[in-house]
Amino acid sequence: MDIELARTFLAIVEAGSFVRAAERLNLTQTTVSARVRSLEDQLRRPVFIRNKAGVALTAAGEQFLRFAPTLVQVWERARHQVAVPAGRRAVLAMGGELTLWNPLLLNWMVWMRRNDPDLALQTQVGLSDGLLRQVADGVLDLAVVYSPRQWPGLQVEMLMEETLVLVTTDPSTEGVLGPDYVYVDWGADFAAHHGLNFPQFSNPGLSIGLGPLGLDYIVQVGGTGYFRKRVAQPYLASGRLHLVPHAPEFQLPAYAVYPENAGNDDLEAALAGLRAVAQAEEPQPGTGPTPAEAPTASLDHNAGVPVPAE
């Protein structure tokens, strides 16, 4: 089978329509339709039901969906293994969200160098959806992201929880409503928490999609914003930043995402390294504010509903 047929099938399932799949694949709708016809000819069964709302899977399509991710992943793994550098036994490709590279994934690369030096590493950074798509396609063996959405054929494992705290350069600041508040986009979960705890909050004067950029900005020009406590800690210790009293804290979980039933030693070694460095980064008991000083919020990830902490 032409592996592009399986890729196109998965893109349609993800997008929900031929038109959106064609846009994502940068193909014409005619090409996408032709690939589906070729796939259905080879399977001798229709895989999609077309309707005004988009597409739905037939029974045969549901069955093929069980195997399509594996087809793509096996092909990409074969490509990687053929390209193994001299002196290395295999190649492992890892991706991570921009904010997670420092220090989690940097520490992971150091761990892998020390514990599994015969394994060649390919690493990249990107946005969550793009990284998940590459894991599903087999381009990446695993990725580390915040708040991954469900994806066929992928396993999700929580590695660690970081704490987002409200910090400011002005000790007199009382909350998020000041003109110098910088809204950092930490994802959909954070947005839900933020809206629940600050319902009076309106559009920010400045919104930033990358945490380190936002932190550098307020350190240089002043302001207030939510940032990872571990990263802000040196500025808090030096007095350049201050915790906003009684402001809620939010938990930001990081997850490893990898193919279901991957079952190979190299992936297990990579996961062992991620678990080790994630555990080393967990905050020590008794080092943070008490619940009375900083109320926290958690998220029911199954229901997708913010749940205030007790």
Write structural notes for this entry.
The chain has 310 residues and is an alpha/beta fold. The chain has 3 domains: 3-68, Orthogonal Bundle (Arc Repressor Mutant, subunit A), CATH 1.10.10; 79-160 and 253-281, 3-Layer(aba) Sandwich (D-Maltodextrin-Binding Protein, domain 2); 162-252 and 287-308, D-Maltodextrin-Binding Protein, domain 2, CATH 3.40.190. Helix content is 42%, strand content 25%. The protein contains 10 helices and 13 strands. The longest helix is centred in the first third of the chain and has 24 residues, at 59-82. The model is unreliable at 284-310 (pLDDT under 50).
Summary keywords:
single chain; 310 residues; alpha/beta; Arc Repressor Mutant, subunit A; D-Maltodextrin-Binding Protein, domain 2; eleven-stranded mixed β-sheet; two-stranded antiparallel ribbon; 10 helices; 13 strands; globular
Count of individual helical segments: 10
Question: Describe the biggest sheet?
Answer: 11 strands, mixed
Per CATH, what is the topology of the largest domain? D-Maltodextrin-Binding Protein, domain 2
CATH first level of the largest domain: Alpha Beta
Question: What gross morphology would you assign?
Answer: globular
Quick structural summary:
The protein is an alpha/beta fold and 310 residues long. The chain has 10 helices and 13 strands. The strands form 2 sheets. Strands 3, 4, 5, 6, 7, 8, 9, 10, 11, 12 and 13 form an 11-stranded mixed sheet that branches. A two-stranded antiparallel ribbon has the order 1-2.
